[in-house]
Specification:
99 residues, alpha+beta, two-stranded antiparallel ribbon, single chain
């Protein structure tokens, strides 16, 4: 098993390549970000439902921003970049309420 792979529910493939596959620019940024230094923690520890939600978000052309957890951490797709404006790309992984 590679370091980017974890065992998901019912044996689902949860590699970062699979989660962020259709993500465009934001998929690449999510892949490269060191999530262990973020309140969300390492991708391997993210709940499967969150990984699935992120994957669906990234594959959509419609602007989507996910706000997750008590720290309101935001993850968004390429369609949402214009909404972030000058805050992109530092807005990724930030507290939505402060961004």
């Amino acid at each position: 098993m590679s370091e980017n792979q974890s065992i998901g529910q019912k044996g689902k493939d949860t590699t970062t390549d699979t989660i962020f596959h259709d993500g465009g620019e934001m998929g690449e940024r999510l892949r490269l970000m060191d999530w262990s230094k973020n309140p969300l923690g390492p991708i391997e520890l993210w709940p499967q439902r969150f990984k699935t939600t992120v994957s669906l978000c990234l594959s959509s052309n419609f602007p989507i921003c996910i706000v997750w957890g008590p720290e309101h951490i935001q993850i968004y797709n390429d369609g949402y970049i214009p909404i972030c404006g000058a805050l992109h790309p530092k807005a990724l992984g930030m507290d939505f309420t402060k961004c």
